[in-house]
Amino acid sequence: MNTAAQLFFDAASLGGIYAMAALGIALIFGVMNLVNFAHGQYIAFCVFALIVPSTDAVAVMFLGRAPAFLLIPLLLAVGAAAAVASEYAVFRHLRKATPVAMMISSFALGFVIQNALLATYGGRPKAISLWPELNTPVTVMGASVPLLQLIVILATLTVVAGLALLLKKTRIGLEMRAAAENFTMARLLGVRANVVITGAFALSGALAAAVALIMATQTGVADVRMGGQIMLVAFIATVIGGLGSLPGAVAAGFLIGAVSVLLQAYLPLDARPFRDAFLYTLVIVSLLVRPQGLFVPSSAKPRV
Amino acid sequence: MPGKHMQNRLLAHSTPLILALILLAFVAGVALTGDRALARMAAETLVRVTLVVGLWIFVGNSGVISFGHAGYMAIGAYCSAWLTLKPQAKALFLPDLPVWLANAEWHVFPAAIASGFLAAFVALISGAAILRLSGIAASIATFAFLAIVYTVYSNWEGVTGATSSVVGLTRYVGPWVALAWAVAAIVAANLYANSASGLALRATREDEVAARASGIDQYRHRLLSLVISGFFTGVAGALFGHSLGVLNPDSFYLGITFIALAMLVVGGIGSLSGAVTGVLVLSLLIEALVRLEQGITIGEAALALPSGAQEILIGIVMILVLILRPAGLTGGAEFRLRARTPRLSFDQEQTTTN
Amino acid sequence: MSRLGVFDVSVRYGKVPALTDVTLHIGEGERIFISGPNGAGKSSLLKAISGAVPTAHGRIELDGDLLTGRPPEAVARLGLSMVPEGREIFGRLTVEENLRVGTGIRRDADAVEGDIAEIYRAFPILAERRHASAGALSGGQQQMLAIGRALMTNPKLMMVDEPSLGLAPKIVDQVYDTLVALQEERGLTLLIVEQSSVRAGRVGGRMILLRGGQVVGEGDAAAFADKDALTEAYFGKTGKEAAE
After folding, report:
1. I need a surface site. Which of B42, B55, B234, B329 has the fewest CB within 10 A?
2. Which sequence ranges are marked TM in the entry (chain C) (predicted)?
């Protein structure tokens, strides 16, 4: 067994999940300076959309029963719809509010979604079985790797490339990039604020759904708390990537995945339960060293 | 007019008096009913006043949202448990405590103060790092701090009992004790807010760049306010433990962070009166919702809200306040006496938007 | 009918009035200079027309279409384009992407490529650097880009806010030469905020003077440039500095 290759696949697949979650957050921040704490709950929402609403201990598949070619677009649409709905219900009314007020309201919204899930599905984690065959290991470069890890890595690359193409080559992508840089000027040139913001939320929600699919397959659990942890890591990735920078968010997501896998592998056994504490400490240290983010030129002004 | 200026400064100190009287009336009212459930609710509410006022000392003055205060609360709560629990209990549940702590058997009052100091010390260390960041990056770093404390306290088996609850804390905090601490927090918060440091810090709240240009050492004032804030938040943690009798790391994570921020936002981040108002209003709402969750019978029909309804409703209230009244219920104003017209009023001079 | 009509427009920031009952008309193909000292309300007027700030009172029409109460993106769709103060180009986009941002509102999508070629003909330096990021351009080049970007929406009326700000006099000459040439070629209607009445007089056109949020004078720009006394009467002491 090749340890280095094993670690690489672990790091790349974990980092891929973080990168996708961070992208979802960075997109929204870039367009409207909103630190969206509800993002983790979009992920949880999408996981629970896979099963039939009920507080019973045993999960019955709902959307999750659909074949993959239907399920994937369907769940991406559910995620997009959830995010767009939240914009319509909450953030649209806060366009003129301060970033701090928007941030707190997204925190509140996340709590509302989480507790709505709690009320509908009950608080206990439920076992779900989505594409269990993907967890069978295959041998790559001397390492035994679950098929899913390879799929995650591929999916991340596809998503990142697709998003880059969308932003670079399409009309809405151009408008989003222009709006992210200078919203007022973009509007003076006829770029419709609502279209751009709705588009950003839809993309962000679809990214959350992609993360949800991967997490559901990988962990085999639906838990109302699952959004919180990933969201925190994703936030940290967007901050150390440079708030609002999409390439930065992706790079930082992978970096955090790698550091986290390395800590897990090399921390002394007694210290391993504290892995996340070490991780977050490293994050604070990295912010102190480069407050504007690791992946932006140090000449760039911090945006917040 | 120095006379008038002097008078204004004195009147600024009428705010804690009014707030203390409101809380006193609340406790006295509850005590008169003799209802034990209500007395418990009053104690919980006043512990929250200490917590939220503690949080306000930092957030209200600096304008930086902190998601990390539940961490200081946890530090205070566990510190008090270490100091006050019976040595036999500690030998059994927390075997890895150092000898002097394992044998300590303090009274709750000095233990609460020591808890406050420990939390303040951690605030100093963590703040020294986090507060070098600006605005939203600092907020996210406070979140990372909370996650660090939570991870450590949920895994430090021999010292915190990890995820299993620490039980057997003296249930010493009733409404009157909680009232005394809440008033102390309010007085300290008001003193700080009207001190040179507090005034300078609030001047920086609106515009970080301009403040830095004007030579205000924002970092030092922020750090000072965080240390004071950490002290009272730590005390609130200790009081929390001694009012419930049980500690668990989950009590000091996202749930309490959310509730405390909701109270601050609903009341109005901009003022001390806002912090206290938010606690009272939302505590009453929570109490009503808790009763509804337990179920009430109206005639034949039994009604019960599903669990989680409480948080959903509070979240919605919070969002509505942010949309409709972004400066909170008090609009950022303080309750205080006005010159010559000695009546309760909103003093618009103090009005600020957050 | 005039191209742009501003009727009794007032703008307030909180309780502070920035414009009070301003009325003015611009005919098709006309070139208008708005001048006046700092705080006269020039920028507020442009912002009110473009929909960036709400009007407290009054009505603004472009070719008979009501602009007041519409958001900036809707105003842009009705044919108004803006070259803002400080240029506000999108520094992280390429030069060509900057030109394309505003083309989303055009109904004649087929004409876009031809127009881009035309902009490149007018500003060869932009063609040369079409794939460079716009933030790397010099100030003068950025001004050209901002003008080109505004033209790409195919506007009925183009507003230019302080085009000479922060540029060397020689570059300013170039900017004005281009603006005049473009106007003659395309029959464009131009509204230009220019603090220097000397400059405005040299370029030529009609001049409207603002002071304290009100229109205090109107006439041929050349006349204002020559008559120092008149300028001083309108501007007071600061006017002399402003005029140069």
Report:
1. B329
2. none
| Residue A280 in domain | no
With CB atoms and an 8 Å threshold, state whether B141 touches A90. no
For residue B271, what is the enclosing H or E element?
Answer: none
CA dihedral A170, A172, A173, A179 (to 10 degrees): 150
Domain that holds residue A138: 3-226
Q: What is the number of structural domains in chain A? A: 1
Residues in chain A predicted with pLDDT less than 50, given as ranges, are: 298-304
Q: Are residues C97 and A192, on separate chains, in Cβ contact within 8 Å?
A: no
Nearest to A235 among B140, B261, B311 (CB): B140
Rounded to whole angstroms, how far apart are CA atoms A53 and A50?
Answer: 9
Closest CA in chain A for residue B313:
A112
With an 8 Å Cβ cutoff, are B130 and A228 in contact? Answer: no
Phi-psi region of B29 (alpha: psi -120 to 50; beta: other; left: phi over 0): alpha
Residues of chain C found within 8 Å of residue A181, distances taken between Cβ atoms: 90-93
The pLDDT, as a whole number, for residue A301 is 43
Note the helical H segments in chain A.
Answer: 3-32, 39-48, 68-89, 99-121, 147-169, 171-181, 183-188, 193-219, 226-240, 246-266, 275-289
Closest CA to B49 of B222, B186, B187: B186
d(CA A191, nearest CA chain C) in Å: 6
- Chains touching chain C through at least 3 C-beta pairs below 8 angstroms are A
- Comparing CA positions, the residue from B135, B137, B120, B35 lying closest to residue B72 is B120
Torsion-angle region of C45 (φ positive above 0: left; ψ -120 to 50: alpha; else: beta): alpha
Distances in Å between the Cα of A121 and the Cα atoms of B122, C215, C230 are 38, 66, 79
CB neighbourhood size of B159 (10 A): 18
Chain A environment of B309 (Cβ under 8 Å): 115, 119
Q: Tell me which residue has tokens 């900057």.
A: C98
CB A213 within 8 A of CB A64: no
Does residue A36 lie in a domain region?
Answer: yes
Distance from C-alpha of A78 to C-alpha of A42, rounded to nearest angstrom? 9
E strand segments, chain B: 166-167, 246-247, 296-298, 301-303, 334-337, 344-347
Residue with tokens 């609360």: B73
* DSSP H or E segment with residue C5: strand C4-13
pLDDT band, residue C236 (cuts 50/70/90) = low
CB nearest to B130's CB, from A111, A274, A284: A284
Q: Give the C-alpha separation, C209 to C196, whole Å.
A: 11
pLDDT digits (tens, 9 = 90+) for C73-104: 999 999 999 999 888 999 989 999 999 999 98
Among all residues of chain A, which has the CA nearest to that of B327?
A101
Contact between A190 and C76 using a beta-carbon 8 Å cutoff: yes
Quick one: which of B348, B226, B270, B208 has its CA closest to B60? B270
Residue B136, classed as helix, strand or coil, is helix
Q: Flag whether A248 is in a domain.
A: no
**Mind telling me how many Å the CA of C171 is from chain A's nearest CA?**
24
Full-model pTM: 0.86
ipTM score: 0.89
- State pLDDT tens for residues C5-34: 999 999 998 888 889 999 999 999 899 999
CA distance C97 to A169: 10
Q: Do C73 and A174 touch (CB under 8 A)?
A: no
Query: Hey, is B336 helix, strand or coil?
Result: strand
Complete DSSP assignment for A134-202 = GGSEEEETTEEEEHHHHHHHHHHHHHHHHHHHHHHHSHHHHHHHHHHH-HHHHHHTT--HHHHHHHHHH
Instruction: With respect to residue A302, please indicate whether it lies within any of the assigned structural domains.
Output: no
Task: Name the residue type at position B311.
Answer: E
pLDDT of B341 > 70? The answer is no
